[in-house]
Amino acid sequence: MITPVRSVLGLMLVVLFLGPPTFSKAANSAHDFAFTSIEGEPMPLSAFEGKAILVVNTASLCGFTHQYDDLQALWDRYRDRGLVVVGVPSNDFGEQEPGTADQIKEFCEVNFNVDFPLTTKQHVAGPEAHPFYLWTAEELGDEAKPRWNFHKYLVGPDGQLAAWFSTQTSPTSQPVFDAVERVLPSHDG
Questions:
Q1: Rounded average pLDDT over 99-110
Q2: Catalytic residue among 28, 91, 111, 149, which?
Q3: Residue 17, domain member (yes or no)
Q4: Residue 137 located in a structural domain
Q5: Does residue 124 contact residue 90 with C-beta atoms inside 8 Å?
Q6: CATH number at residue 67
Q7: Which of 35, 47, 60, 163: CA 20 to 30 A from 120?
């Protein structure tokens, strides 16, 4: 029979040699993930529970960088109805986001008047991708993975993935407006 003291000593030896145990919890929704804001503060997606979230991987030196204007316009149009646009800078495609957090933030504010939330630079593709992006690939399949900058995921107020849009789809296109309208509460006039 193992005594409580021996059990504790055994657990201590396991932790000493293997490190503290990690407990993985399967993600049930986007609200199970967190980013770090470009200012360095925690940005759990659960903070946006009850709101729709458009998560977009961004880059400052891309041929699609002009979409920052459209993302800001989408944010301006729907923020009061419960849409949050979250920009996720990434250097994964063509090394088109080489800057520091301060440089990225300044670029977005000065050139595009961006005031929607931005995260710190993240990997969005491959095995080193941020866990949110690994989860989206698992949930939606390979077809829905980002293949370039400005790939978009729409998350419903319940944290479930509602739609995805390729790089070429403008944030101010009718398909995006329609998808956002479907997940937001009805609007009275």
A1: 97
A2: 111
A3: no
A4: yes
A5: yes
A6: 3.40.30.10
A7: 163
Within a 13 Å sphere around the CA of 112, how many CA atoms are in the beta-carbon half? 25
CB atoms within 10 A of CB 56: 28
Look at residue 19 in the predicted model and tell me its pLDDT: 36
Residue 149: active-site member = no
Q: What are phi and psi of 47, to 5 degrees?
A: -65, -20
Domain that holds residue 96: 29-183
Q: Retrieve residue 30's tokens.
A: 């986007």
145-176 residue pLDDT tens: 999 999 999 999 999 999 999 999 999 999 99
Whether the Cβ atoms of residue 89 and residue 122 lie closer than 8 Å to each other: yes
Say which range, 23-27, 64-68, 113-117, 120-124, has the weakest mean pLDDT: 23-27
Q: What is the gyration radius of the CA atoms in the chain, in angstroms?
A: 20
**Domains identified in the chain, total number:** 1
Tokens of 144: 């829905």
Which residues share a beta bridge with 154? 54, 163
C-alpha 4/C-alpha 158 separation (Å) is 43
